[in-house]
Amino acid sequence: MSDVGETPAIRVAVIGLGSMGLGMAESLLRAGFAVSGCDLAQPALDRLAMAGGRPCTTPAEAAEGAAVIVVVVVNAAQTSDVLFGRDGAVPVAPAGAVVVSSATMAPADAEALARRCEDAGLLFLDAPISGGAKRAAEGELTVMASGAETAFAKAGPVLEAVAVKVHRLGDRAGIGASVKMVNQLLAGVHIAAACEAITLAGKLGLDLDTVYEVITGSAGNSWMFENRIPHVLAGDYTPLSSVEIFVKDLGIIQDMARTERYPAPVAAAALQMYLAAAGSGMGRDDDASLARVYARLSGVSLPGDA
């Protein structure tokens, strides 16, 4: 039986229950928040219900009465749609609610979304995330956030429930997005380099499991090599992070670099490999599929090849 006078749980809406959003929702439920969630995929809604959340069919339904609305979709266009489109969250959100925008997008898009939310009487945090599905499920993400102090104050407990580290980067939208794009440049390049390296090992006739063991204990290791190359070794390209994500993100980086008159040749070369993978029909597969592109170009047989 609940104690008389017990404080009601803070209501949080999570819009987008993919590998990251669902993990964040589950972390929030463990922390005692009342969580509603919205997604197009019924299995994701079923999993949310099993964890104790309230599944909803539209962003508006999820956002009604929510103090914090966390948007974990793919890009700026989807973020705009779930907030302001048909059955969007913003028209029904309580005045003063905080929109936590976690999709990876160009800084200018984050700034524009912030202005629209503020014009509607809502607070806004530009708060992209990093860490992958496993860390999302464990409440150990990294959040790169910028926005007004009032938004941080209201959304702070939510961010702390989903993250092991919350970086407060500034008082305006766009800063968080900029830092995330620097991260995505490195992530995209590191995945491409990891796939290039493990496929070269195959071309040289080396045992790939042994190479993985050696590299992960050596100076050439990276988080992405350690995380993605097991997908190659298993021949399993079930998407945890798809090729198309880096087609988008490295494309944004090229646009930003061109605007700033800044050379980004390594990121540009990596983008070409993601485009090759997408053009070969692997766009929705795991981003470790770049190894398969290298393999096809060089006649290498990787685990799982027929």
Automatic annotation (TrEMBL):
It is an enzyme of class 1 (oxidoreductase). InterPro entries: 3-OH-isobutyrate_DH-rel_CS, 6-PGluconate_DH-like_C_sf, 6PGD_dom2, 6PGDH_NADP-bd, HIBADH-like_NADP-bd, HIBADH-related, LtnD, NAD(P)-bd_dom_sf. Residues 174-294 form the 3-hydroxyisobutyrate dehydrogenase-like NAD-binding domain. It holds the Pfam family NAD_binding_2. Residues 11-167 form the 6-phosphogluconate dehydrogenase NADP-binding domain. It catalyses: L-threonate + NAD(+) = 2-dehydro-L-erythronate + NADH + H(+). Its EC number is 1.1.1.411. PROSITE patterns: 3_HYDROXYISOBUT_DH. Belongs to the HIBADH-related family. L-threonate dehydrogenase subfamily. Catalyzes oxidation of L-threonate to 2-oxo-tetronate. Can use either NAD(+) or NADP(+) as cosubstrate, with a preference for NAD(+). This is L-threonate dehydrogenase. It comes from Amaricoccus macauensis.
